[in-house]
Each structure stands twice: as C-alpha cells, then as structure tokens.
Amino acid sequence: MTGLPPRDETAPILQPLTGHTPNYLPATGKTTTWGRLPCEDDEPALSVEPGTTLVVDTVSHEGILEDQGRDPVSFFGAHGVAAGDVLLDAIAIAADGDHDLTGGPHVVTGPIEVRGARPGDLLAVRVGELAPRVPYGVVSSRHGKGLLPGSFPVAGEITSVFCAVEDLALGVGKARGTLPLNPGDTGRPVRFPIAPFLGVMGVATPAPRRHSTPPGQHGGNVDIRLLGTGATLYLPVQVPGAGFYVGDPHFAQGNGEVALTALEAPLRATLTVDVVPAAEARARFGAVVGPFARTGEFLIPTGLDEDLDVAVEKCGRNAITLLGSVFGMAPELAYAYLSAAADFDISQVVDVVKGTHARIRLADFEEVTR
Q: Within 10 A of 330 (CB to CB), how many other CB atoms are there?
C-alpha cells in the first residue's frame, strides 16, 4: 500500500560508520541475530566495562522480510525511496542474513558483554540519543495477528503501509510522520509526532535455548514507548556478562501497538550500560520481578503474561514493591495511591506474552525524597 513519497530530502541517511570507532557496534551478519534472541552460548559482539557509553546501529525488519520480497531496495523503491537512501546494512542482512523463521521477525544487535555482571545483578541501561537513520518507516499488519485478527489485513496476508517523515532535519522534536487518508492520496496528509525508542532491549538467557522475541524477565520485546532518550531500563541479569542486545527500533508507537507493528524504522542508539550489584539492587528496589524503568517523570514497573489480566496484576504487585522499596510506602497505602493517582497502560497486545506498565509520577513524592 503506497503512502506519501519522502519529502524531507535534507534529512541525513545514517549509513554504517566506517573506520575504527571505539564502542561502536554496527549491524552485520556477525553482530546480529534474526528471529531469536541471544543466549549464553552466543559469543559477544562487543565487550565493555560497566559505565561504558555505546553507539549501536539497529536495522528494522520491515522492508527486509520474506513476505515483502526480502529486497529492501525494491521494496522501498516502490514507495519512491532512492536506492542510495536504503541502508547498506539492511541490504546486506536481507541478502545474506540467517532468519530463524521459527522465531519472530526482529533483527537484534548484540550480544554485548558487560564485564563483571552476574546473575542476580541488575543491568542499568540509560538511553541517550536515538537518531533516526532514514526519513521513512513502515507499519504492517500481517498473518491475521494484531488486535483485530478477524478484520485485518483486509485482503491477503500482509498490508505494509509506508510512512514518510517530514522535517527530520529540524530535529526529532519537530519531525512528523505522515499518512494519507486513502491509498495514493497525495493531499491533506495526517501528521503525527515521532518519539523514537527501542522496542527490544534485553539480556541473554541461560544456554542452550534462544528465546523468541516476546518479553520476559530477560526483557526482549517490551515495547514501552516511554523508553526514549533519558530513560533508564533495569534488566535482571540472567548469565555472566549479561549479554545485552537491542533491536525493533521504532519512530513512534501508540500504547497497545494494535496493528501488529508500530512505525518501524532504524535508529542509531547511544546507550550507557552499568551494573547494579545484587545486594544493592535488592536494597534499592526490593524483589521486583522482571524489567522496570525510570524516566525524569515516572517510575515504571511492568507486568508480563500471556493473560492480559494476569499481566496487569503482576504490574500492580511490582508497583507496590517499588513504592515500598524506593519510597518506604506501606503496601496498603501504596495500593490506595496506585488506584488514586497512577496510570496502568497496555504496552502491547500483539505478542504471545502481553505487556503492561504503570506510570508512577515522581513529582508526587518530592516531599518524601527531599
């Protein structure tokens, strides 16, 4: 389904960096896995000390998948993208990458060894700049999945909606994704803000199993749009060295990700990785189960389960644990506070494992922390 042609000809195309760049991890056939997530047996693509800032290139699966022809030059060319504006690493992975079709669609970059990390520790990942690598992306509905599998796609097994991004050269804050009202319509587009984040961030799991991308205690496809620049994600370390990886880059997503994908598009991510030792993690955060995060505005517990009701319940329990550990709040009062003041959101409903997260405003606890 053709959308609008790219209009922002001044936006840079961030091709892979050349030459030696310290702590830069490109996306290549050797530094990525496609369809499944790294496990303990996978050799590190990069090894760093805690506290290191990394630059990691990610590649979107949209435009390179088998049901799109596995040829991004042709796929994006049909939507008006010049061959030189297609990423070289996407072309290479589409041509030669080993896609495990028993898993998911995502290409993840890693694993990255964080030296000294041990099971029981927390890996703290602070998200820095998330730079769009191209001024376009794709939203796809396929294979009778998503929120309304009986209704979409309307015809066939896949609908891929191309989305151009305007004003990207002016910065992410001013950029807008564009969609037409009808296929082929070039006038009066719908415009919406972009807010980049990485849908997949996680740590390696014990050998020998490579998990598919749905989220779990290891992280994975958590799809929380609040995890943009400035956020810190905490991941329970599963194996020595952590084995950190990222992927599923998004330019924008609504909570729920109802059509199966968000606005999928590649990012260059600046990330700082650190380790919170097990004893310190327990003292600071208590017995929280699974990933959680903090931004400048919110404390963000998560809940993950195949049953959405159970996922919300798990999120609530983690929220009460965090309120008690971080702020010293009694459980019954934390329960009341959550009901009166916190928002529980659906992260995504399109994975086998559903995701929820809560937004606890840090400003509500200013007097406590003071």
A: 11
List the domain boundaries for the chain. 24-276, 286-365
What is the b/e burial string over 140-165, where b = at least 16 CB atoms within 10 angstroms of the residue's CB?
Answer: bbbeeebbeeeebbeeeeebbbbbbb
H/E element, 340? helix 331-341
The average confidence (pLDDT) of the chain is 95
Contacts of 339 (CB under 8 A, 6+ apart): none
Class at the top of the CATH hierarchy for domain 286-365: alpha beta
pTM score of the predicted model: 0.95
**Gyration radius of the chain over CA positions:** 20
Q: What is the mean pLDDT of residues 342-355?
A: 94
Task: Tokens for 268, please give them.
Answer: 């260059």
Other CB atoms within a 10 A radius of the CB of residue 45 amount to 22
Please give the CATH topology (third level) of the domain spanning 24-276: Jelly Rolls (2.60.120)
Closest CA to 27 of 211, 267, 263: 267
Query: Residue 186 above 90 pLDDT?
Result: no
> pLDDT of 356-367, one tens digit each?
999 999 999 999
Q: Is 35 exposed, middle or buried (0-12, 13-18, 19+ CB in 10 A)?
A: buried
Say how many C-beta atoms besides its own lie within 10 A of residue 336's C-beta: 12
